[in-house]
Amino acid sequence: MRVTPLIVILLIAVTVLGAGCMEGGQPPLQATEEAVLQDAVSGINHELETVRASIAESARVLGETGLASTAGKEAVRQTMLDHPWTESTLVITKDGIVAMAVPDNYAGLVNVSLTAHPVTQKTIREQVPSVSEVFPLEEGFSGVAQSYPVFGPEYLGSVSIAYRPDALIGRVVEPLTNGTPYDVWVTQTDGTVIYDTTPEEIGRNLFSDPGYQSPGLQEAFSRIVAEPSGSLEYSFRDRNWERNVTKETIWGTAGIDGAEWRVVVTRNLDAGERQVAPAGGRPPAADAADEMKAFVAGAAAYAREHGRTDALAAFNDPDGEFVRDELYIFAYDVNGTVLALPFQQGFVGTDRSGVHDSGGVAYIAGMSRLAAEGGGSIYYLYPNPARGYAEELKLGYVLPVDETWFVGSGIYIPDAGTTFNTSVRETLVQRVKAARDYAQEQGREAACAAFNDLSGEFADGGAYIFAYGTDGTTLALPYQPEFLGKNRLDFEDRYGVRVILLESAAAEAGGGFVYVTYYNPDTGVDGLKLCYVAPVDTEWFVGSGV
Fold it and tell me: Using CB atoms within 10 A as the burial measure, which of 288, 422, 466, 538 is most buried?
């Protein structure tokens, strides 16, 4: 299997996509911590206010037409499409009963009583707009609910939209910190981290997590949550968790309607911070993928022969036999906990199952699924130790050691130009979720007929909608009708990535992003594609890509 042509294909794809798919201009070099903080706070507040205005419009329509009305449902759907990173919306009566759930994946919640939930209790009691603290969502992760009261002749209930706070905050912070020495993290006043430029920190608690228990950190964190603004210095790991550094820190407060979020901007003060350097090793050679696979297979065999403890010690040795130029072995348990990461050993023991790359791809979850299926390849963006941890595209490969853990490695593909900005990603998500809503409204047969219609609205060149059963059966593929009805769960692209398997796994998790190399009807050749998929129900999903 040749890998070198991938670079050419990816660069062709980027050229075709044009500047609209590339990250916008970098923040000015003269930007200060104070400017980053000010822009972050104002930007987060603006995002919250924009969501509130959209929910208010939904509440107005619901108040005029009824909590379970068709017009109200359409207004709620439009609000979610206007904010495509949101997860779900509930319309709740004044008695705490769910009257409507959008999208239809959550229809099972209709008529369920939520009166025992603190968020519902507060909304009924206060009857004002509110932003909750984080709590476990139906989707299986923590999020916030932003609510607005619904009034007719009297108080009728509320409409509440749920989302991950890191999705909202990331829309603001990522453009501010990209290419700068600044990191940003955001915490509730109870110490729950709701955003961090190091995603492994999200969801931890500053006061109870074992990794934060040094006296100096506890003193710093206590000040940050107690004071609306301020500055200090503290010592903690750098952004790559490679070593401890001194961090200059300032913070302020964002939030509306009851939310009080401390926004913290930090900068590494220690001299000698690792700088971006020319890539070490070599670019992918003709046999690089085969070499990588053999390297991983050898590591898996070594682990089975020597046992877990000795194998992990060897894998975590940055000067050991399992680090060869750009190749190195990493290891995870099947639940996503880091077991070996030789250049970022601060992550060992941490749960990375929910970590996404900057393109939104949940690559650790994807690796776990591949390992459970016997192994396989995956694309993702990851910091390259040979380039000062600059993010680059990686073609990874994993194999299970046994049913409890797996090993892997990857090949960096520098300068592939795979950064898709927030606007591009959200437009993609919006397109897919609109197709999902259409499918839920029209049913599978009618929806797939529309998706497969080359003259219809859903077959817009490279922006076409596809659909598969979760078992891999092809339901809609307008430019390749010869595959309709065929099972493609084991289909591999030219670099061995099981495209449909990874998309199905992302859909089963509630929706998500996947990188694939696939035919582009706009160019007539294969190219790197960032796809997003969303489940219609438990049996099939829709998707599209850029």
Answer: 466
From 149, 164, 179, the end of a domain falls on 164
> Does the CA dihedral 409-470-359-169 come out positive or negative?
negative
Contact predicate 164/141, CB 8 Å = yes
Q: pTM value?
A: 0.85
Among 398, 390, 391, 313, smallest CA distance to 364 is for 398
What is the number of other CB atoms lying within 10 angstroms of the CB of residue 524?
Answer: 7
What are the Cα distances from residue 497, in Å, to 289, 366, 379, 489?
A: 12, 11, 8, 11
Q: Token pair for residue 466? A: 């596809």
Say which range, 9-18, 270-279, 421-430, 508-517, has the weakest mean pLDDT: 9-18
**How many CA atoms, within 13 angstroms, populate the side-chain half-sphere of residue 457?**
6
Query: Are 294 and 308 in contact, with CB atoms under 8 Å apart?
Result: no
Phi and psi torsions of 142, nearest 5°: -90, 145
14 part of a folded domain: no
What is the residue range of 232's domain?
33-41+166-268
Whose tokens are 């009618």? That residue is 446
Quick one: average pLDDT of 18-37?
55
pLDDT above 70 as % of the chain: 89
Q: Tens digits of per-residue pLDDT, 423-458?
A: 889 999 999 999 999 999 999 999 999 999 999 999
Cα distance between the two ends of the chain: 25
Instruction: For residues 178 and 37, state if they share a domain.
Output: yes
Percent of the chain, pLDDT > 90? 71
Strand boundaries in 279-415, DSSP class E = 323-324, 327-328, 330-333, 338-340, 376-384, 390-402, 405-413
Q: Do 241 and 256 lie in a common domain?
A: yes
Cα–Cα distance, 453 to 72 (Å, whole number): 30
Of 413, 432, 458, the domain-final residue = 413
Q: Which tops the pLDDT comparison, 492 or 524?
A: 492
DSSP-assigned states of every residue in 150-204? EESSSEEEEEEEEE-HHHHHHHHHHHHHTTSSEEEEEEETTSBEEEESSGGGTT-
pLDDT category, 414, cuts 50, 70, 90? low
Rounded alpha-carbon distances, angstroms, from residue 415 to 178, 208, 452, 480: 17, 41, 35, 31
